[in-house]
């Protein structure tokens, strides 16, 4: 049967349970199909019991295998809470403290500012108040990487801050990599092994994995999809992505877990039980649970358009690996996650003792977010509202506006430049934190290669003046403007970049690169 995976556990023996919305699985499947999402998994728990597990659609376009309760999905940044839980077990064991200085637990740790290096605590790693800019350093693992986690953490010292330490909120991933490396330094175990032994195993999450190698070997797994053929990602037909595009293992502590719906239900129950395990014992203590959900940093609240106004919180904060905000006056503890080709959301309503999670194998997150608000309305007693339709309309408007803006920009470049012969743009350019970017002369003009990122190369197409646009061999990589700065002697002395698309994911942080000819960069570092 199509819906045989549903576990309708709300029976006469448990009349106190609120129960999922009637027909919710069918409703979710209709939303999934309408937006063209290949597959979806859903888990709902109430009062310590699993009340719905659903697998919808297929694991991979063009293949018959359907999503089931044990199909694993990469879950992106929802995994940050697992890294926090792993740290919590070490706090309970007395091996670390949340306010220990990182440098005392991870020798060699270094930020750009020596004072920040000395003052940064383990708590600071987890709450996005370090002073780094939004997504700083993400090109060290996006779209892929073969850098080790230790090497990635080492490069952190070259990333300049955007603001002062602890002055505000800016989401990052690289400091969760530091947290993973710290776990290894304290325990002698890789982050992957520690999470599987000390988080997954006690929680009986038997199908999930923290390591990409076992995930690729698992037959019951979802495959990545995206609309990546248009000039704005999100437009065009759904397509299967090359799995080589998976994020590098170096970023796993920031969001490298793969989890099934069955296992996600177990995680939801552990969180709602404040760390207590169903068979007795605890994953983490009540004291650490309170630390995890304690708001630490205020997040800015942007204005949503009128159709979405009810979803706009009155307060929004970040705790340890969790967002804590309100929805129509009710506290919500939640987190979203996204990696290339997948999106997920995990939501807890503590006062109702309800939690739910959704995972999809595409980037059409508006369908999932819409269903999230439908569930919130249901459990909080608000009238039904067609949130999927509203979020879909909002997404399509943003995509159309971005596409129109790009068309306008590309249709009116100045018919000027380039000011140098193409050979004179060629060279190896270095950024202190990223590494080398190589520009070479080819038969077709100029070629570019991001040497620290496997298979990230292609042509440079002249745009205007001394600015070119990347035409990557891999069309799923966000294009970038590449602007060469010419000194008084007619030589390139700097190269700056920025994304072409106004909707490019912040992890394509080209704008943070400060590239200089390699010889000049080496001389500058020697002078330091």
Tell the overall outline.
globular
Distance between the termini: 68 Å
Q: Report the major sheet.
A: 8 strands, antiparallel
Task: State the secondary-structure class.
Answer: alpha+beta
Describe the structure.
The chain is α+β, with helices and mostly antiparallel strands. The protein has 15 helices and 20 strands. The chain has helices at residues 24-35, 80-92, 102-105, 114-119, 122-126, 149-155, 174-187, 191-203, 212-217, 252-255, 261-272, 286-293, 365-380, 387-411, 518-527; strands spanning 39-46, 49-57, 73-74, 225-226, 239-240, 258-259, 297-298, 316-318, 323-327, 330-339, 342-349, 354-360, 427-431, 435-442, 445-450, 457-464, 467-472, 480-486, 492-499, 516-517. Strands 2-1-12-11-10-9-8-7 form an eight-stranded antiparallel beta sheet, sandwiched between helices. Helix 13 (365-380) packs antiparallel against helix 14. The longest helix is centred in the C-terminal third of the chain and has 25 residues, at 387-411. The relative contact order is 0.13. Residues 1-16 and 521-528 have low confidence and may be disordered.
């Amino acid at each position: 049967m199509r819906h045989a995976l549903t576990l309708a556990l709300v029976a006469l023996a448990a009349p106190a349970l609120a129960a999922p919305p009637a027909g919710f699985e069918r409703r979710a499947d209709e939303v999934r199909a309408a937006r063209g999402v290949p597959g979806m998994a859903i888990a709902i728990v109430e009062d310590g019991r699993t009340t719905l597990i659903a697998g919808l659609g297929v694991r991979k376009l063009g293949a018959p295998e359907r999503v089931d309760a044990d199909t694993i999905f990469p879950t992106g940044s929802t995994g940050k809470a697992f890294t926090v839980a792993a740290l919590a077990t070490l706090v309970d064991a007395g091996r670390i403290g949340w306010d220990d200085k990182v440098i005392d637990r991870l020798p060699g740790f270094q930020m750009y500012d020596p004072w920040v290096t000395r003052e940064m605590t383990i708590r600071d790693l987890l709450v996005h108040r370090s002073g780094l800019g939004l997504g700083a350093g993400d090109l060290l693992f996006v779209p892929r990487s073969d850098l080790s986690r230790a090497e990635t953490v080492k490069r952190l010292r070259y990333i300049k801050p955007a603001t002062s330490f602890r002055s505000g909120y800016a989401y990052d991933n690289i400091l969760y990599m530091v947290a993973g490396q710290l776990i290894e330094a304290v325990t002698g175990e890789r982050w992957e092994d520690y999470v599987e032994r000390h988080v997954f195993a006690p929680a009986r999450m038997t199908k999930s994995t923290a390591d990409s190698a076992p995930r690729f070997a698992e037959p019951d797994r979802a495959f990545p999809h995206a609309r990546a053929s248009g000039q704005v990602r999100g437009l065009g037909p759904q397509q299967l992505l090359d799995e080589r595009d998976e994020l590098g293992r170096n970023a796993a502590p920031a969001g490298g877990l793969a989890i099934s719906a069955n296992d996600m239900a177990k995680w939801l129950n552990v969180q709602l039980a404040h760390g207590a395990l169903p068979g007795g014992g605890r994953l983490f203590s009540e004291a650490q649970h309170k630390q995890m959900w304690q708001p630490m940093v205020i997040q800015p609240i942007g204005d949503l358009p009128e159709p979405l106004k009810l979803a706009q919180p009155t307060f929004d904060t970040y705790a340890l690996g969790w967002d804590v905000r309100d929805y129509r006056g009710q506290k919500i503890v939640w987190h979203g996650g996204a990696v290339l080709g997948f999106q997920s959301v995990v939501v807890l309503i503590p006062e109702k003792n309800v939690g739910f999670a959704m995972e999809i194998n595409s980037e059409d997150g508006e369908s999932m977010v819409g269903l999230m608000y439908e569930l919130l309305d249901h459990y909080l007693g608000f009238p039904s509202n067609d949130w999927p339709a509203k979020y879909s309309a909002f997404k399509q408007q943003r995509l159309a506006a971005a596409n129109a803006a790009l068309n306008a920009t590309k249709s009116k470049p100045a018919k000027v430049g380039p000011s140098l012969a193409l050979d004179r743009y060629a060279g190896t350019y270095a950024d202190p934190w990223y590494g080398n970017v190589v520009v070479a002369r080819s038969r077709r003009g100029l070629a570019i290669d991001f040497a620290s990122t496997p298979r990230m190369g292609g042509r440079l197409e002249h745009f205007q003046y001394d600015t070119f646009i990347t035409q990557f061999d891999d069309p799923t990589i966000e294009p970038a403007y590449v602007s060469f700065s010419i000194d008084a002697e007619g030589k390139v002395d700097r190269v700056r970049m920025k994304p072409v698309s106004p909707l490019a994911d912040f992890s394509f942080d080209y704008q943070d690169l400060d590239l200089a000819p390699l010889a000049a960069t080496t001389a500058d570092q020697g002078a330091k």
